[in-house]
Every structure is written in C-alpha cells, then in structure tokens.
Hints:
By secondary structure, the chain is an alpha+beta fold. The protein has two domains: 301 residues, Distorted Sandwich (Beta-galactosidase, Chain A, domain 5), CATH 2.70.98; 190 residues, no CATH class. It contains 15 helices and 28 strands. Strands 1-8-9-10-11-21-17-14-13 form a nine-stranded mixed beta sheet. Strands 7-6-5-12-20-18-19 form a seven-stranded mixed beta sheet. Strands 25-24-23-22-28 form a five-stranded mixed beta sheet. A hairpin with a 5-residue loop joins β22 and β23. α9 packs across α11 and α11 runs antiparallel to α12. The longest helix has 22 residues. The N terminus and C terminus are likely disordered. One of its GO terms (biological process) is carbohydrate metabolic process. Keywords: Signal.
Amino acid sequence: MAFVLFLCALHCVLSVALSFTTTTTPFVPSSWPIAVKGPYLNTWQPGSSLEGTLSQSALAFWPSLEEETDWTCIAVVDSTPYMIMGVDRPQNVTLANQTAVSFTATRMSFALAAGPVAVNATFLSPVTPNDLTRQSLPFSYFFLDILSQDEATHDIRIYTSIIPQWMFGNAENINATGSLIDSTDFVGLQMQMQSPQPFVEIANHAQDVIGIFAMKSSSNVRYQIGSDLTVRTFGINATGLQNTVELSIPTYFDAYAISLDLGSTKGTTEPIMWTLGMLRDPSMNVSTASGSNQLRSSYYWSNFSTISEIVAFVLDDFDAALASADAFDQMIMNVSLSHVDGYPGLLSLAARQLFGTLEITVSKSSDGNWNQTDIMIFSKDMGDVSSSGTSGGTNVVDVLYAGFPAILYLNPDLCQYLLRPILASQVNNGDVVGQAYAPQNLGSQFPSTSANTSQHNLGIEESGNMLIMVLAHFQRTGNLSIIRSYYPLLKSWADYLVDQTLNAGTTSLSDGITSFNQTNLVLKGIIGISAMSSISSANTVKDDQMAYQTIAQQYMQIWLDGAVSQDHSHLLSSFADQNSSGLVYNMYADKLLGLGLVPSNVSVVLPPGSPCMMDCSRSLGCNPNYTLLCSVQASGFLSSYLIFPKATF
C-alpha cells in the first residue's frame, strides 16, 4: 500500500505521445531515462515520435532539456558505419533501424538493426537502496549485445564518445581539460573544468564536476581525446583511434572517445560495456543553525581513496550491478496493485527519478577520518516538483513527503537520513529556532543549504508533513533517535497545528489550490496532531499523548461536519461550500499511519466532473501526484480509474 506514493516522484514527466512506429514496452513516456544516477548525472532522451529514435535525437540534461548531453555510438559492420546513437550524423554513416524500445526500473534498452547484425543498446542506472556505497556512486553503464542475423561472420568495430557538455551544458565560454587516468586495468578518460567553482550551478550543472568515461582494457580497445570531427573520422575508418590526448582544440568541440574492435565475429558472448560518471568532492556545503558551515562528501568517498580506485570498482562491479538490477526490477513488477494496467510501468519510470535526486553524504571527524555514522541525504527539487516555486531547492518538505512512502518501502533507514538535515537546521544548542511551523526547505541553492527560518504560507502543510514522516519512520524501524533528539521541536510544530488547523483561511497546500478553508489542508493538520500523539507515546510522554489525541478526535468531528456534502455524495474541498468538490488525498496519511481517525464509511468519492482530475495540467487544479494518493484508499474499478489514465497515451 505504501509504495503507491512512489509515483509522486514521477510528477508530470508523462505526456501524450505522438505517433510512434517502434514497438515500445511498457508504454511511451515523454522522455526516456538514459543515465540517471544523481543530480548531476541525469540525462534523458525525448520519447515521442522521431525524437524517440536513439540514432536521431540528442540526449538532454534534466530539467533543462535544452542542455544537450550528446553521446555518439557508431557500429562499423563490414566497413559500413551505422549510427546507433547520436546526432549530427556524417553523410557516410547509415542510420541503424530502431525496432523496439523497453524500460524497467533500472535500465533502458533499444533494439536496432545495423545492416546484417542486430544491436541491443542498454543503459543501466542501478538502484540499490540498501547499499549506500553503490547507490551514492554517480555512475551509469552503457552496454551492447550484438548478434549476426544471417548467421555469417562480420567484421565489427564499435565507436562511442561523449562531449564536455555533460559537465557544463551549452555554455561555450567554459574551458575544460582532458586527461587519461593512469591504469593498466582500464582505459579511463577524465574531463574537468580548468577553473572549477565549488557549490556553483549554471543551468543546473555543478561547476566542480569531474567527468569520467571508461572501459576495461584489452588489446582491441583504443581511445582519443580531440576535435569531435577528427576523432570520429579516425574512429569509424580503418585507421582507428590514435590513443592520444589533444589539448589544443576548443573545449566545446572536444570528443572523448573509446572504441573496440571485435574482429570477425557472429556476435558477442557477453556485453560490451562502458561506464560514465560525474564525480565531486566535497558534494554539499551545509549551513548549520549556529551559522557555521560543514562540508560533506558523497558516501562512496568513505570507501575509496582515488578516482582510479572508484573507476576500477565500478567496472569490476558490472556483473553484480546487473544481478541487483534484475532483482530490483522484479520487485517493482511484483508490488501490490501490479495487476492494475500500467501501474508497474509507472513505478519503473519513477524509480530513477526518485533516487536520481539524492546526494548521500558523510562527514569527517575532527581527526580527519570518515564518520560513517553521520549520514545525511540531500534531495534536489529538479524541475519544481513541489509546484510552489522551489526548483533547485534542497530537501523540499512536500517533495520528500510525496516520495516518502517509496523510501519507507525500499529502505526505511534512509528516511531518517533525509529528515535529519531539516530537523537539525531548526535547533541550535538545544534551542528551537525559526518559525513556529516547519520550514519549507533547506534553501534554494543546491548544493549549498541554509538553515531556512524564513516565513512561508505552508505552515500547516509542512508541519503536518514532518510529523507524519517522523512517525512513519519510527513505525517502520522502531528507531527512536530522531524523536528523542528533536522532541521539543516536534512538539512546537504540533502546538502550531493545534492553534491554526481549524483556522486555515488562505493558508496554502503545495498542490497550488488556493481556495479558502480547504478541507484537505485541515485534515492534514488534524492527522499531524494525531501523529504527535503517537510520537509522544513512543517517547513515553503520556500527558502529551492523551492531550494531542483528544484534540485530534475533537477536530476530526468538526471536520466531518463541514467536509461532507449535504447529500453525502462527495467530499467538499472547502468547508461548508456545497458547490465545491475535490479528491481529499490527505486521507492517505491516516491509512499509512494506521491512526483510524477517518471513519471507514468516509472514503474517496469521485466528485462531479472528476474526469478532469485525470489531466496533468496544473491549470485544471489537479496534479497526478495527489490524484494517485487517492488510489491507495480506493479499490477495484476506482483504483484502476485513478491510475490507468496516467499510463495510457
């Protein structure tokens, strides 16, 4: 049941697709996830019509799809070059024919015909929520499987290259330097900016990234860094790449290329694999409640000393990554509601989006050693998911809330790592600081955070969200650490809800709806108060437990009197306004926590005109994030009705 909220991470990446001749499984989204393994390795491909053809469309960086991250792959078969992936195809290169596309929760696969051979191109972005080292590594794999279609042998060479725009996007005035990583085990090409700027973003690209493109060494593997036209020409003709690094050409026109000569063959017996990564250190600049700053590193650095060690591990880990990806994909396909048409596909599309926003970090102790007990996770709001103007924000509370049940389902221990930075930002030397309500985020300048104490109009929403998430984490783990450490702070937010919930007025919800005295918002506040009762019980503060539960029950009766239409046909969106209606999705939290506040005879009732609620457009006053919450409370036809339109185009 909890996993249904996984879809809230999906947001509106889905759209109506144009005509598409390639066979697609399970459906055609507006964008395909290609390499999605962190805030700065987050590349997608347009998925509709001609743009969905791997050999005819440019990959792009999310959320700025104008920021191209070109990646070229050409298969030379019997001296004839075929474009597998990329744009700006030379005239002497033939387009490979794309025949099928499929995706799972961890990979994208494109089936193509390159003359007499079949090529299956796969992009793997592992999702490993129970392994912090692997999950924090910002690397994706690209691999090919090749098979002769006429059972004859063919001379086959594979050329593939990336460009520096993977680091900095379309900014032509940024200079970068390329180099070869010193290793006999692999060919590793490294690119980094000549003048890196820590914790600075331009068009969502971090200005301190080190890019890595690598492949295991063999006698048939060659490389070259240089002008893209020159490098590509060498790569696809009989000369081959030159094993050189050219530094005298403009950065914007560089190509970082690695090729493999398969010789005369009927196909591959194991995948041909490359890896692409984007490294940074330190990764987060955290402003604390005391005003000091803490530099934090991505978790993987606590297990490695050099870039060479990291690249070697990633390449050697490919088989294990494939096995874990298979297991994760199968788990997604078997979740509850998997019988609902389109639902597993939606979960599969959302998985990388959710985990691709996360920066898992550790700190160093005063002696300079890694402190692996001090884990914090920072999530970047990529593309204003919250609908409240927080694009680029860090640990945006309502965005975390939308994806929180997915984290609870996959690894509830991660929840405290996401909540701790928010809680810590509001307490200084044991004293609660900031507003009477929970903050909206940790600032809007990822990868730098602030101890945000500014005013906002989401006090009921965010305070309720935080109390619900804290209790949900405790219920799944039995871990009392954040409750005991931050009980006075949690109590202050609950007291705010007691004072303000029944007087919501024009206080906002994050869904963008601004009507007066919203029943949905008031319900969130009541559930937050009840959650505080359970938190108090867990912390053995009996007086608080009884007081908050009594108030929650009293408020719930008031809510029932004003939230149900006079004819009992539907729930009202504004108190006592018989002309209002809406899907009161916040009932979900009552079910998630098992509070039993909402009577069993009060459930999601589709209001008049509800088909419009299925539309992704915010201008219609709805959002698929919140519509899908209601599917948890529904069953049978209604559950399918709420989910199915998201996966049919």
